[in-house]
Amino acid sequence: MAGARKPVVEVRRSQRRRRTVSAYRDGERVVVLIPDQFSRAEESEWVDRMLARLAAREGRPGRSDTELLDRALRLINLYLADQGAEALPASVRWVTNQNGRWGSCTPADRTIRISHRLQEMPDWVLDYVLLHELAHLIVPSHNARFWELVSRYAKTERARGYLEGVAAVSAVPVPG
User: How many of the other CB atoms lie within 10 Å of CB of 125?
Assistant: First the structure.
């Protein structure tokens, strides 16, 4: 990659941040958020790692909100068809402001929001999170009926395990 310039990087340290590292593009610069206690060597290592992740992410096309809604409708047909219109969301969209959860649902207005962090995860994990949020349109709480609906998806336990592993590394809770 001769001639490729390294972008301007702004490192922001946080005393509240314990283990997680994140990065985003802000115009021409990249902002990297790290825990305050990181050494300079750890900072350098994480800056390089996050620049590589951003480059990889930007190199592949993102999933659109329309594709996300289509995926949700397919999951309804496969796993929640017997629930009728109760399972239909008003909207399903990607959001970038959910760093403490994978997805959220507001049954009152039938909206579902999915963290952009799932765009990089396997489809079967995204399907689990989508089905989890769709089930909340029918059952707002995490009671037995809710888990019966979610467990219709054969990879529920596998996806939960995957998310638990990611959460252990990044301190993000697993839904439920």
Answer: 20
